[in-house]
Design goal:
Blueprint: E1 5-6, E2 9-14, E3 19-26, E4 32-35, E5 37-44, E6 47-57, E7 62-78, E8 84-96, E9 99-108, E10 117-120, H1 121-124, E11 129-130
Parallel strand pairs: 1-11, 3-10, 4-9
Antiparallel strand pairs: 2-3, 4-10, 5-6, 6-7, 7-8, 8-9
């Protein structure tokens, strides 16, 4: 049942945002994170929304997309180096292969990282097993 196993890098779609990219699967991270610059809070129909720019360039991924999403929450998130910051949390659709579901994603500057998206354990818990020796291309055969 290889469709229920993720590798350490997965090709994902965020159809609500119009984004397709590779993501690093990180079971050590609680919350998923998407690279975002120029985050701007605004109101739409009395609700809080964010507008943000996903501008990312690395040998592994290149994106240039303006996005908007309803704000679910604003939380203090600890990064891998222990630094804490307040981040906007959105809920968005994630698709990996033929699996589609809603997940919480924090908006964070990931410009120094190799991948624009980090897929955390809350998003994959109960849905997938992770085989860190694999890569998404290993499952496409």
């Amino acid at each position: 049942m290889t469709d229920a196993i993720l590798g350490y890098i997965e090709s994902i779609e965020l159809p609500d945002l119009g984004i397709c990219c590779d993501a690093k699967v990180d079971t050590g991270a609680c919350t998923s994170s998407l690279h975002a610059d120029r985050i701007e809070l605004f109101k739409r129909d009395g609700e809080s929304w964010v507008r943000f720019h996903v501008l990312f360039s690395s040998p592994e991924a290149s994106l240039d997309k303006m996005c908007e999403a309803k704000v679910l929450d604003k939380r203090t998130i600890a990064s891998s180096n222990g630094q804490r910051s307040k981040r906007y949390i959105i809920q968005t659709t994630i698709t990996i292969r033929d699996h589609t579901w809603q997940a919480e994603v924090s908006l964070s500057h990931r410009g120094t990282m190799r991948y624009p998206m980090l897929l955390g354990r809350k998003a994959i818990s109960g849905r997938f097993l992770v085989d860190v020796s694999k890569h998404y291309s290993d499952f496409s055969e």
